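P.,

For your records, the input lines for the assembly:
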Amino acid sequence: MGVAAIRTEGLTKRYGKVAALDHLDLDVVEGEVIGYLGPNGAGKTTTIRLLLGLIQPSEGHGEIFGLDCQRHPIEAHRRLAFVAGEANLWWSLTGAETLHLLGRVQGQVDKAYREELIARFDLDPTKKVRAYSKGNRQKLILIGALMARPDLLVLDEPTSGLDPLMEQAFRHSIHEARERGQTVFLSSHIMSEVEALCDRVGILREGRLVEMGTLAQMRHLSALTVEATFSEGSVPDLSGVPGVSSVQVDGRLVRCQVRGSVEPLLKALVAAGVTELLSREPSLEELFLAQYGVHGKSPDTSHDAS
Amino acid sequence: MQAEIADKKEAQVGRWPGTVVARLTARGAARSGVIWGSIFAIAIASSAISYSGIYKTLAQRDALAVAYGSNHATSALLGPAWQLQTVAGFTVFKVSMALMILGAVWGLLTSTRLLRGEEENGRWDLLLAGQTTRRRATAQALGGLAAGVFTLWAVASLVTVLSGLDSKVKIAAGPALYFSTAMVATAVMFLAVGALTSQLGATRRQAAAYAAAFLGVSYAVRMIADAGVGMHWLIWASPLGWVEELRPLTVPQPIALLPIIAFTMVVAAGAIHLSGTRDIGASIVPDRLATQPHLRLLSGPTGLAIRMMRPTVIGWWVAIVLSSFLYGFIARSAGATISRSSVEGLLSKLGAPGTGADAILGVCFLVLAALVAFVAANQVTAARSEESGGRLDHLLVGPLSRASWLWGRIRVAVVVVLVDGLTAGVFAWLGAASQHSQVSFTTLLAAGLNIVPPAISILGVGVLALGVWPRAAAIVVYTLLGWSLFVVLIGGIGVTSHWVLDTSVFHDMASAPAVPPNWEASGAMVAVGSLAALLGGFAFRRRDLQGE
Ligand SMILES: Nc1ncnc2c1ncn2[C@@H]1O[C@H](COP(=O)(O)OP(=O)(O)OP(=O)(O)O)[C@@H](O)[C@H]1O
Ligand SMILES: [Mg+2]
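Structure tokens returned:
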């Protein structure tokens, strides 16, 4: 374990009576790529703006590389770069001018890497920001952040508006960052992206962190979907088997979910003469939907979302 | 927020899909029409009532008529003076040029905001999706603007007719209506001009700049016509000239309505036609979308502020150069008329005691002070829009403290108003020297410096607002500026309450060069401004950044 790149303790932000973020405790290890998920309005942007010192917490505090976000923002900001989901830029500047400005403000630029990124993202830097499409503006701020090669990349829905090719270029860049040991904090609604890139995933709901762990851990906690086909006339009743839930019978096909050890289920299946067996782990999307599909219920009781 | 607006608009599309553009535009225009109509009303009423209060005797009124009646310098500046012996004549003379320009500025800002501005923000995409053609949408928007200018006219007319009922003013309803109509005529024409330039320029700023340039030319043309150099026929070449030729309340000439109506129709038709020949979001005048990078200023937030403010700042600087030169130019002949006609007292009521060119310049520098204060207010709103537009985020997530960003903006603003003030002094002197006036360079330079402190106070209060109530910063600075000017106006008509007068940033400013600058009062103003800015800075460091 290295130094904590991000640490928050009881970080809270209230707007009037609404807690946009409610006592968040977060630990991000240096070099980790963290996915930060949650439905609209869950508090992802709020978390990020608190970490960046753009807004003040109502309670608690956050640190970046051990530096308090509110008290030492300048030192903390030397080590990070930020990409917002909406590229609000200076419309009369060209792409090249914007990158130059962002580089100067940030204070560190890997110029060769910048050129590489411009080529990779296929951006025409001579155009004015006003003339860019939304996706192109998004590329511009992505390049602006990546080119600094900061120790920490804070990304808030960084790929909104990017086409699939550019999404690939983005993933490539994040892999590069990870190989260089940079820490990445990625808030996103694109599950496949988070699944492909992140070491750990946090899920936020109504301002509270409801899940945090590696994908494997989260899968372990969640149910495995099993589909079994039996020969004529021998469909067993599986509802009494330990760990099994949500049993559905469809002719000779039985669909059920199992959590914990699969041994009791396997024994029951073999005993009943199973002919075909299919099982798969839930995707991140299914985990996420399980978390939110049935509002307020725990993942155990939620049904298979596929 | 954005989504909310979109929702609202969608709901409206649902009701009468055919007229949605007209209704939205009308609503936007009517709202500001009411505000500006009230400003027109205050100006007209206060001027009419004050005249009857100050110039009670016929002898005083005759003196006034002699002073201005045949003065080419003032007629070039303010338009010709007719029948100054009457309340009506004086009112027209005193307020009409200011209202004509104000009306034109309102018109061009409103129509470029509601046409090009809304289009630039992408709102028209939503409205036009399958509903109507571009041409019909533009025609509808013009209809909406007409509704807006109608509210302005209605408010101004109501108050004009009411103040005409005053026993000392006594203006009949018919002529009063004709007068308010004349005062709104420039607004009508420049709404159309703004609609046309909204087709030409790619951004709201560009569209407004084209329309403003046309206004500048119109003003300059009528100025030559009224300068007494034998070219009065030129008056018919300028939209502002047509309004002047309406001659309300004095020797009415309704025939001048013809060119006004024809011009409005032709320009509006042109706007509708052009809107059909281009794509949504595109412009007729080619927009340079790709250029060589100019990196010199872009090395930090302060350079960025300079780069982004440059067009506006230069625009205002040119306006200050031209008007101060003009004021210097006319000062001598206007001043000569004053001494001859022994009405020194009159000007002193406007805050400029003394005689001759100095006294006239004293009043002119008040106008320049207002311009410079406006520049300061503009700097505050520009800083606020960096924050509300989300662009400030990109700067503050770097190793840059909020204090140094704000300090950079303040520094730029202070340098700009300082340069503007000194420029006013230098060019007023150049204008005066070109006419061999005996006004010394140092006196006018000091007068230029003298108009800076009120701008610094506005700036300071603006920074305080940025710190503690950012969403209201623009309203705070523009209200303070408008109120300050209003107080000067009512101060001119004899209001003496200190409680009222001290709320104006211009009240403690000495009317240099008519009287020597009061550097102590100026120092106090700068101190108050700095203190306010300091408090604002502290508050800014500890608050949340806030969007719109
Ligand atoms: N300035 C504000 N004033 C009041 N409420 C706010 C403000 N900013 C955010 N909120 C509220 O805080 C909550 C969290 O918002 P936040 O923007 O952090 O959500 P998010 O997880 O980023 O959502 P999304 O996925 O839509 O980006 C929301 O309920 C939002 O309405
Ligand atoms: Mg968000």
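Two observations worth noting. The domain at 220-301 of chain A is CATH 3.30.70 (Alpha-Beta Plaits). Chain A touches chain B at residues 49, 52-56, 73-75, 77-78, 80-82, 84, 86, 88-94, 96-97, 100-102, 104-107, 124-128, 130-131, 141, 144, 154 (CB under 8 Å).

Regards
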